[in-house]
């Protein structure tokens, strides 16, 4: 039989929707909240007086940094670059 059956098409469409929803969920969960970014920038300014950007860059480069912490540091850097 050439082509796909109607059931195979529905299954492929269902998988695509599930994967798309999973990707959107993962992206939204991996982006820190603006309030968390602002709080971390203040903490960076305390830990690295006068140089929160340099502090964020240093902390981002540390070995063993967890993925959520790395995402927070990248968000802080983006926020400081935009300011």
Please give a quick description of this structure.
With 83 residues, this protein is mostly helical. It has four helices and no strands.
Which features does this protein show?
mainly alpha; 2 domains; 77% helix; elongated; 83 residues
Describe, in plain words, how this protein is organized in 3D.
By secondary structure, this protein is mainly α. It has two domains: 1-30; 32-83, no CATH class. It has four helices and no strands. The chain has helices at residues 6-30, 34-47, 52-60, 67-82. Helix 2 packs across helix 3 and helix 3 (52-60) packs antiparallel against helix 4 (67-82). The longest helix has 25 residues, at 6-30. It is elongated.
Q: Which outline best applies?
A: elongated
Count of DSSP-assigned helices: 4
Strand content: under 5%
Number of strands: 0
Uncertain residue ranges: none
Please write out the topology.
Elements: H1 6-30, H2 34-47, H3 52-60, H4 67-82
């Amino acid at each position: 039989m050439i082509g796909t059956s109607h059931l195979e098409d529905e299954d492929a469409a269902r998988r695509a929707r599930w994967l798309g929803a999973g990707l959107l969920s993962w992206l939204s969960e991996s982006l820190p909240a603006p309030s968390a970014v602002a709080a971390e920038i203040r903490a960076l300014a305390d830990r690295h007086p006068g140089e929160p950007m340099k502090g964020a860059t240093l902390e981002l480069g540390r070995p063993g940094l967890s993925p959520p912490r790395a995402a927070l540091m990248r968000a802080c850097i983006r926020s400081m670059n935009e300011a």
